[in-house]
UniProtKB/TrEMBL annotation:
UniProt lineage: Bacteria, Pseudomonadati, Pseudomonadota, Alphaproteobacteria, Hyphomicrobiales
Domain (PAS fold-3) ranges: 53-110
Gene3D superfamilies: 2.10.70.100, PAS domain
Name of the protein in its database record: PAS domain-containing protein
Domain of life: Bacteria
Pfam family, one: PAS_3
Length: 184
């Protein structure tokens, strides 16, 4: 799909880094040039099927285990991908990357996924805290609980049990208050 120059300019202004395309059974991802440069550290890897360790070779060592773990889990189940993590983009330089996408069964029943990376470094201070004061980046237990709580609440809304919806809403309220309490 070709995008107009205006659309590409808007994507770049929004922090667009690049795209990924994953063949789950093969355990390989293909990155475009932007993603290969920022995530793998080598634009020459663009368009080549890469193992996870190569495709995400620049993930910050402190984020590596939870990022790879979450990706491996979604590769087993399919579904949405939403991760925010750090990459080492140069000597002493850390960038925050948002990875969004979706893995679903293709017509043959095999899991396949596509997504994009955005550079969201501007949302963080040098200390790694969100500039809006919401606390440390992803990977924290409370942030993970909030993500799961939102998914559970949405599922309960589809189920239609008002009592369970109320309970999940109360849980989300409690998590939100605790996260808000982290604000300086």
């Amino acid at each position: 799909m070709q995008l107009s120059s205006e659309a590409m300019a808007a994507l770049r202004a929004a922090g667009f880094v690049g795209t990924w395309d994953t063949d789950v059974p093969a355990g390989r991802s293909v990155l475009d040039a932007g993603a290969a440069t920022v995530l793998a550290g080598n634009p020459d890897l663009a368009g080549q099927p890469l193992a996870l360790e190569t495709a995400l070779g620049r993930v910050h060592p402190e984020d590596r285990d939870w990022v790879f773990g979450k990706i491996r889990r979604v590769r087993q189940t399919g579904g949405p991908v939403s991760l925010e993590f750090r990459v080492l983009s140069g000597p002493g330089e850390v960038r925050w990357i948002l990875n969004r996408g979706f893995l679903a069964s293709d017509p043959s029943g095999m899991l396949h996924g596509r997504g994009a990376y955005l550079d969201v470094t501007d949302l963080y201070t040098r200390s790694g805290r969100l500039t809006n004061g919401a606390g440390p980046g992803p990977g924290g237990a409370l942030e993970a609980a909030a993500d799961h709580g939102i998914q559970a609440h949405a599922a309960l809304e589809r189920h239609g049990d008002t009592h369970l919806q109320m309970l999940s809403g109360m849980l989300l309220l409690g998590i939100g208050r605790t996260l808000a309490g982290r604000m300086p």
